Amino acid sequence: MKLHLKIWRQANEQANGMLVDYDLEDVSEHMSFLEMLDFLNEKLIKQGDIPIEFDHDCREGICGQCGVMINGIAHGPLEHVTTCQLHMRVFKDGDTIVVEPFGGAVFKVKRDLKIDRSAFDRVIGAGGYISVNTGQAPEANSTRVSHDVAESAFDSAACIGCGACVATCKNGSAALFTAAKISHLAKLPQGKEERLDRVLNMVIQMDKEGFGHCSNTEACEVECPQDISVLNIARMNWEYNRARLLMKK
Predict the structure, then answer these.
(1) pTM (predicted TM-score)
(2) Are residues 125 and 243 in the same domain?
(3) What is the pLDDT of residue 249?
(4) CB under 8 Å to 102, separation ≥6 — which residues?
(5) Is 77 helix (H, G, I), strand (E, B) or coil?
(6) Are residues 58 and 143 in the same domain?
(7) Which candidate in 6, 32, 53, 80 could, as Cys together with 112 as Cys, close a disulfide (CB 3.0–4.6 Å)?
């Protein structure tokens, strides 16, 4: 397979970036998208050029580090798939592929396709901790959680923090990410003790980071590789308003 690639190159956060053209031949349809970038980097290194930097870690669709915009779509053309799990068989011989870093006012480009996601870490950190007894694990049946509640909490906890929701939102909102983190603990008894403080602190930190406001276009859910539901945002708003009312009493 022969491809024409237009890849964002940027030396550092302060530098101006631009799309650079690369022609790549002998691309196997069985390669993952990141393996294709590895293949290109091997070619660049042999030519004495600087390789393209991009984020990755597990390459199993779990860590959330690998997100890029592929032809203007977060993680590429397949729904609910991370960039590392996207394979070249979805493209055709002779295709032009535009590869850019996740955008947004908060996600600063560190170099090429690498971005700074530390704002997500600070939002999570603002949530603090949960109060649980340490030591021997309690009897499983001593804390009763219904199957439906447990499944719903797991669905929220599936968020991998990749940032696709921010990158695809016209407002650069982190509402889906923050809501998923708030919701999964709000649904479980282990998260009840700090429930009020958690939602207030995380929403305040989200706004402090400079993320935009949610305007309910639901583009975030469409591009989320874990198919996190926007119902989590409704849950976050309810938890936030509830906390504001109860904290005033």
Answers:
(1) 0.93
(2) yes
(3) 56
(4) 67, 68, 69, 74, 115, 163, 164, 166, 167
(5) coil
(6) no
(7) 53
Q: How far apart are CA 106 and CA 212, in angstroms?
A: 9
Dist CA 94 CA 99 (whole Å): 16
Residue 196 amino acid letter: L
The reply to whether 140 and 244 lie within a common domain is yes
- Side chain identity, residue 167: A
- Mean pLDDT score, 142-163: 93
Q: In this predicted structure, what is the pLDDT of residue 197?
A: 95
Q: Do 88 and 134 reside in the same domain of the chain?
A: no
**pLDDT value at position 141?**
72
Cβ–Cβ < 8 Å for 214, 64? no
Do residues 167 and 68 lie in contact, with contact meaning Cβ atoms separated by under 8 Å? no
Same domain (yes/no): 106, 127: no
The tokens 């993680």 sit on which residue? Answer: 75
Other residues' Cβ atoms within 10 Å of the Cβ of residue 243: 18
Phi, psi dihedral angles at 211 (to 5 degrees) = -65, 150
Q: How many helices (H) and strands (E) does the chain have?
A: 8, 7
Both structure tokens of 70: 């592929």
| Per-position DSSP letters for 100-113, written without gaps between them | EE--SSSS-EEETT
Q: Please list, in sequence order, all residues whose beta carbon lies within 8 angstroms of the beta carbon of residue 52, skipping any fewer than 6 positions away.
A: 7, 9, 37, 40, 41, 44, 112, 113
Run of H or E including 243: helix 231-248
Strand partners, 32: 87
Give yes or no for a contact between 115 and 106, defined as CB atoms under 8 angstroms apart.
no
Whether 153 contacts 184, CB under 8 Å: yes
Written as six digits, the tokens of 150 are 């447990």
**CB-based contacts of 135: which residues, under 8 Å, 6+ apart?**
none
Cα separation, 203 vs 183, whole angstroms? 12
